[in-house]
Each structure stands twice: as structure tokens, then as C-alpha cells.
User: Which sequence fits this backbone?
């Protein structure tokens, strides 16, 4: 029995891979920015100072930045299916564990772990797109998945506020983590055939110097964009923000 090639599986793969990746971007972006809406309740219950709350916010970013690179290498080595299964499990479990955190140390640790999971997820998602979709649709696929991410950003404040009012801030993290865990189960089933049918990519030497020089302007622009983006995405609402401004 011969293994099907990439072209023959793409039409079937596209029907479920792209919706799955859109759902991933949507859920994972909610999981990363939900803490901003819940910050006032978290700070009050755990007795965190503004500086400590800032440490919790920053804990996500450092491992996330590192695993954007290392996670892509893992995806190349082990494939998109297994890598996203692993990183998705990390995101789901750490989101739920955030709702169980009892202080600064545990909150800082789970936010760091969330950064590892999400950092690996997004370059892996791009690899999955490239393997499952024809090159002519890559731009469309990137556009629609990033739109799903921005929709997640937009829906997070009212969603988390409603969950906090109805239940508690801890319950909001448990519910969202459970939703991400459901996504992991769907991914494990939906991407199996595509991942196993893909051939192994040949080993090609990487021209690091030329690559770095080409990417440096884009990296600088993305750094500036990211700084402003995270300023607004992680801005605490309500009294926490007011106290922070007053202190500075």
C-alpha cells in the first residue's frame, strides 16, 4: 500500500484543518489576554501589589518569545500534529491551573508555562497550514486565522466579565481551559491523516547571515508593534489601572 502524496490529501485536509486552526487562534488568544480583564479580582483576592501584578503579566512574554523559535524547530522535527497536541495540552492545563493559583509564585509559574505552550503553538500552526493547503491559499489562511485571533481579543473582556459576575474569576479560567482541552481532542482526531501522510522534508543548510539581515527590519517593526499591542492587551481595567497610573 503506497502512502498518498501531499497533493492528493490537500482538498480533504483543507476542509477541517483551517477551521481547526481558526478555533485554535481564537481560543489561545482568549487564554493569553483573559488575565487583563480578571486582574482586578485577582489582585484583590491574592493581595498582589501593582509591581507583583506586572510580574505576573510579564511572565508569559519571555518563554513565549523563546518558543516562537524553538517551537518551530520542534514542529519540523516531530510534526505539526504531535507538537500542537503537546502545546495545546500545556495551554489548556495552565489556563485551568491559573484558576487554582494561590499566590504570586504559583500565578507566575503557570503564566510562564502558558508562554511555553503558546509560543510553540503558532509557528506549528503555520507549518500545518503549509502542509495541508496549496501555496496559493497560504495568504488567505494566514489572514483568516489572524482574524480569528483578533476576534478572540475583542470578545475576551465581555466574556470574562460575564463569567466573573455569574461565577468567579477562578471559574472563568477553568471553563476556558476546558474549552481549549476540547480543541486538543478535536485536533488529535482531525489532523491525524494529514500528518501521517506528509513526507519528511529534506535537510537544507540555512544561510543564517542572509536570513538575519533580511528579517532584521521586519523584526524591528514587529517589536514596536508588539510593544504597543501588549500595552493595551494587558492593561488592567477598573481600579487596578487607576492605582497604577496614580503611583507612576
Assistant:
Amino acid at each position: 500500500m503506497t502512502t498518498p502524496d501531499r497533493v492528493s490529501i490537500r482538498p480533504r485536509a483543507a476542509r477541517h484543518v483551517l477551521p481547526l486552526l481558526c478555533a485554535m487562534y481564537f481560543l489561545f488568544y482568549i487564554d493569553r489576554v483573559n488575565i487583563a480583564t480578571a486582574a482586578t479580582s485577582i489582585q484583590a483576592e491574592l493581595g498582589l501589589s501593582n509591581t507583583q501584578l506586572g510580574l505576573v503579566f510579564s511572565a508569559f512574554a519571555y518563554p513565549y518569545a523563546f518558543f516562537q523559535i524553538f517551537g518551530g524547530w520542534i514542529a519540523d522535527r516531530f510534526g505539526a500534529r504531535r507538537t500542537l497536541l503537546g502545546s495545546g495540552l500545556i495551554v489548556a492545563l495552565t489556563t485551568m491551573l491559573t484558576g487554582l493559583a494561590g499566590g504570586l509564585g504559583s500565578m507566575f509559574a503557570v503564566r510562564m508555562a502558558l508562554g511555553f505552550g503558546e509560543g510553540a503553538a503558532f509557528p506549528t500552526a503555520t507549518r500545518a497550514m503549509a502542509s495541508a493547503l496549496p501555496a496559493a491559499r497560504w495568504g488567505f489562511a494566514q489572514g483568516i486565522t489572524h482574524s480569528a485571533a483578533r476576534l478572540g481579543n475583542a470578545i475576551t473582556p465581555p466574556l470574562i466579565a460575564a463569567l466573573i459576575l455569574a461565577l468567579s474569576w477562578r471559574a472563568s479560567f477553568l471553563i476556558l481551559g476546558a474549552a481549549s482541552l476540547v480543541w486538543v481532542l478535536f485536533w488529535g482526531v482531525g489532523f491525524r491523516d494529514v500528518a501521517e501522510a506528509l513526507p519528511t522534508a529534506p535537510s537544507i543548510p540555512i544561510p543564517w547571515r542572509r536570513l538575519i539581515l533580511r528579517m532584521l527590519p521586519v523584526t524591528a517593526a514587529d517589536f514596536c508593534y508588539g510593544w504597543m499591542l501588549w500595552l493595551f492587551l494587558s492593561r488592567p481595567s477598573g481600579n487596578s489601572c487607576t492605582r497604577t497610573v496614580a503611583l507612576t
